[in-house]
Design brief:
The complex is a heterodimer. By secondary structure, chain A is mostly helical. Chain A has 16 helices and no strands. The longest helix of chain A has 21 residues. Chain A is globular. By secondary structure, chain B is mostly helical. In chain B, about 60% of the residues lie in helices and about 0% in strands. Chain B is built from seven helices and no strands. Classes of the chains: A mainly alpha, B mainly alpha. Chains A and B meet through helix 9, helix 11 and helix 13 of A and helix 4 and helix 6 of B.
Amino acid sequence: VERVSIPVWRKSAGWLSSINPDDRDGLGEWLRILLGLWICQSVAPAAKTAQAMRHIMVRVERQLDLLDTTVDRSYVPQFDVKLLLLGQGILAAHNYRVGNAALFAQRLAHALLALPIVPVRYVGELLLLTRLGYLPTMALRASTALPKLVTGPIVRLLTAPREEVRKSCSAIAAATRFGNAAPIVDRRIPTALTAIALQSLSDYDLDLATILLRSVKYLGMAEQRSVAFAVEFLLDQQREDGGMGFLAIELARIARNDEPLTDPTAQVLLPTTVSVLWTLKEILIPDSNLYKDFTQPLL
Amino acid sequence: VERPPHRLLELRWLLDSADLAHRLPSYGVLCRASNLGRQVNPIYLSDYDIYSITHTLFYLTDFGRLPETQLSSVRRRRACEIVGKLLAMQIYRGNWDLVGELLLSHHCLRATSDFYASGWQALLAAQWPDGAVPGPNYRSQATEGMNDTDRQSYVFKHCYHTTLVAALVGALCPMPDW
């Protein structure tokens, strides 16, 4: 698999810097934009992307200062905690203030330390908190067992419903410490996961496909030709404006599921774009690992 | 009438089977013009494209009775790879018609893959107690409220092809070591 050409990343960075979420409820979106820009800058450094990153970091810095007053006596954010911790790491690496996010991280670290075994669903948070220095490395007490769906007969994995496959991917991420520990697995498991990713792409389920492709990377094995097919397809989903994924198809799916849709860009295109960029980076850049690299300064 | 290569192969196979004279191109020429063994991205293949691959193999090998001899080594390797990948993809998709056809394709290529046994297992699990195998367009909800005659007619219309394919798999494809 060859490295994707630089214009792809710069085009996506341009699109990400053009989004302007509402400050009132936009912290999650600002953090996602920051993560997307960080990914683009880490692969294809550019002065414009750096400038956009600085601009976004100032906005996130201000939003984090407001965290305790906007969330009504609670430090539990209204969005993905892992995203908050990733954003915190990127900010800290560039000497920006993390405000009340630090207090939230400390409380979360204490809560996780109090658990005898950390549940699989919190392993991501545990890794990020450790990387941020809130927890000692030894605090990583969580199972490294792979989910039953991928250790049983291959046919069970191939005939599993979508949500079961998705849950198994989360469990693979936890068991492999998001790619920082590769267990010994049957070669056919990543091959089957890649095949499911190819079919998910054929069904235009970019969300599941990108999660599957990262799981394959975390397992440390991939059948290169199939992964190359997936990369080729993902690159074809870059729009003229730099976003990844053709919105109409995703919007139709949301409409079918009767989900509320107030901001199509924030709800659909932004998460899809960042997930695609993250996956492309992990696959194409040797030794790349977001959960390990997010504290590296880029500017 | 303009026909794609796999349809010309079908016509040639039918004419040859009946010992009828014709001026159609050779199997080798038609095979080289087909999709079989070309470098194709499986994500972009439509059902029609996949059927063109499986049917090319059926006619080239007389449904596996003869060994495949028309493909170059490169195209043969690619054919084996794509058939294996597509089998796994179609198992996940639950398209038992294509799962059956791709198992038959393994047989025609005298090849196996990581997913051959899974294909068999999935097809066996999909078969109903009465022996029928649901086709890709069969919807159980569609039979609600139908009388017995209409229901049987609906089931036959939507399941006969997949059931025949599954029967061919049972007759021709070697059982895997479970």
